[in-house]
Task: inverse folding
């Protein structure tokens, strides 16, 4: 199976393509600053590869605000148009509250691990 | 009564959002907040500062955001001010999902989070003059200390 890793210059965010799924391992904080970066990079991967699904891995993430909601919603709209889905993995209790208050938990599938999410 | 105050002014760039969160978190450590309380306050600060940068100053740098923080006993007051465009209808702006920047992937949840994670929120704004957001939160007396003392005995 072809797997491509690419660590980007300035951030602790990692992007990986597995077949038609883009796995984004988020950094420690998902705010307005990192959201801009994720938006640009994921659009690039979506057009370059045949991506249908996106998995956001929150294993390293301890902070997210409404900018995170915005960037996930934006990707949701894009992949839904392609018949794809959005999944999240390793969401902490604190971040879970953000997902619930924003209603985003109804739009994304939640998994314990990235492996589960890909399958 | 314990009292303390601080004020910082920083440029309107997105890098400074994390700076503002860290400053407030460091300032309140004396009250021994729980991880959840710290996280709530960081989220609220982040929302107010991000709003000042992207809405107040419309993403333009070379403008200053002012962050003030005050502790009175166990209550924290956080004030975030900009001298940007202002908000024409504050009640409307506070509604869930209301945003004037949908094309920038804003979800209209900022004020909802500030209200959910803090005890009280006040917004003052004048069109053309700027916006000041004031938030309050009480930090409960930590129970963890007694608990951990009992455990160690
Ligand atoms: N400091 C400000 N100056 C000018 N307008 C503001 C300011 N803060 C908020 N607003 C206005 O209030 C609206 C709602 O703010 P809110 O933070 O709830 O949502 P948002 O910023 O649009 O989206 P999100 O916070 O979810 O990314 C904004 O779209 C903007 O029009
Ligand atoms: Mg906002």
Result:
């Amino acid at each position: 199976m072809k797997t491509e890793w690419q660590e980007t210059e300035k951030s602790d965010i990692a992007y990986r393509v597995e077949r038609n799924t883009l796995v984004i391992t988020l950094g420690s904080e998902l705010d307005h600053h990192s959201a801009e970066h994720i938006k640009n990079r994921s659009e690039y991967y979506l057009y370059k590869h045949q991506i249908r699904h996106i998995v956001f891995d929150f294993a390293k993430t301890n902070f997210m605000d409404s900018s995170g909601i915005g960037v996930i919603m934006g990707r949701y709209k894009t992949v839904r148009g392609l018949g794809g889905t959005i999944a999240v993995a390793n969401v902490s209790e604190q971040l879970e509250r953000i997902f619930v208050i924003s209603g985003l938990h109804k739009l994304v599938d939640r998994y314990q691990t990235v492996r589960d999410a890909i399958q | 009564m314990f009292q303390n105050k601080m004020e910082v002014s920083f440029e309107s760039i997105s890098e400074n959002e994390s700076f503002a969160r860290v400053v407030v978190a460091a300032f309140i450590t004396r009250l021994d907040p729980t991880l959840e309380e710290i996280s709530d306050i960081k989220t609220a600060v982040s929302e107010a500062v991000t709003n000042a940068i992207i809405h107040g100053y419309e993403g333009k740098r070379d403008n200053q955001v002012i962050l003030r923080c005050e502790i009175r006993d166990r209550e924290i007051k956080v004030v975030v001010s900009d001298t940007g465009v202002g908000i024409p209808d504050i009640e409307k702006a506070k509604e869930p999902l209301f945003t004037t920047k949908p094309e920038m992937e804003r979800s209209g949840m900022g004020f909802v989070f500030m209200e959910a994670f803090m005890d009280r929120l006040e917004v003052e704004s004048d069109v053309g003059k700027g916006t000041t957001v004031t938030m309050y939160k009480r930090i409960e007396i930590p129970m963890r200390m007694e608990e951990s003392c009992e455990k160690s005995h």
In short: Chain B touches chain A at residues 14-15, 17-18, 21, 35-36, 39, 42-43, 46-47, 50, 53-54, 104-107, 109-110, 112-113, 116 (CB under 8 Å). The first strand of chain B starts at residue 3 and ends at 11. Strands of chain B lie at 3-11, 64-72, 75-82, 120-126, 130-138. Residues A 66; B 47, 50-51, 106, 110 surround magnesium ion (ligand 2) (CB under 6 Å).
